[in-house]
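Dear Dr. K.,

Following up on our conversation at the group meeting, I've run the structure prediction for Cytochrome b5 heme-binding domain-containing protein from Brassica oleracea. I'm pasting the input sequence below exactly as I used it, so you can double-check it against your construct before we proceed with anything downstream. Let me know if the numbering doesn't match what you have in your notebook.
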Amino acid sequence: MMVVVVQLWETLKETITAYTGLSPAAFFTVVALAFAIYQVVSGFFASPEEHRPRSTEVYPPSEPLPPPVQLGEITEEELKQYDGSDSKKPLLMAIKGQIYDVSQSRMFYGPGGPYALFAGKDASRALAKMSFEENDLTGDISGLGPFELDALQDWEYKFMSKYVKVGTIQKKDEEGKEKTEDSTNTGEEASATTVGETSRSVEEKTIETTEKKDVADGDAAKEE
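The predicted C-alpha cells came back this morning:
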C-alpha cells in the first residue's frame, strides 16, 4: 500500500514540474494564495444577508403571557372551560383541589401536548398513577398506595414552585353535608314544635276537664 502511495506522489511531482515548471512546494503555495485571494474578493461582492451569522437572525418576539387571574372557588364543570380549547382563556389544571395556571407550559398541557388530557381537570389520581386512562382523570385519591401518594406529592411540589395558584375546586361532599345538616335541624325543630303543641293541648284539656268536674261537683252540692 505504501509503495503505491509513494509511486503516485512521485508521478504527481513529475506532472506538476512538467506542466507548470514549478516545484511541488511552489505549486501548492500558489494554489493556497489563489484560494485566499478568491475568498477576499468574493466577500466584497456578496450580500450582507449571505454572511450574516445564524445566531444573529431576528425572530418575531412572542406575545407576553397575561398575568394569572384569581378565580376563587369554582366547580369542576367551570374548570373544564380552561382546557386550552379557547386560546383567549388561561390554561388551568388542578392537583388535590388546588387550581394552577399552566399557560406558560402550553406545549405540554395545551392541545396536542403530551399531557393535554390533564388540562381543565383535577388530575390528581392520574398523576399519582402516571395513567392516561379516562377513569383516572379525577381528584379522588382514595385507595392509592404509599408510592403513588409520594409521586403525587412530588407533582404538587413541582406545581407549587413553578406555577401560580389561581383558585380551588368547590367540594361537592361538603355541600351535600351542609344541606343534610340543615334538613336534619329543620326536622328536629318541627318535631320539637309538634311535641310542644301536643303537650299544651293535653294540659289545656286536663284543665278544662278539671274545671268542668269542679263545676259539676258544685252544682251537685247546691242540689243537696
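Two things stood out to me. Residues 174-184, 215-224 have pLDDT under 50 and may be disordered. The radius of gyration is 46 Å.

Best regards,
J.T.
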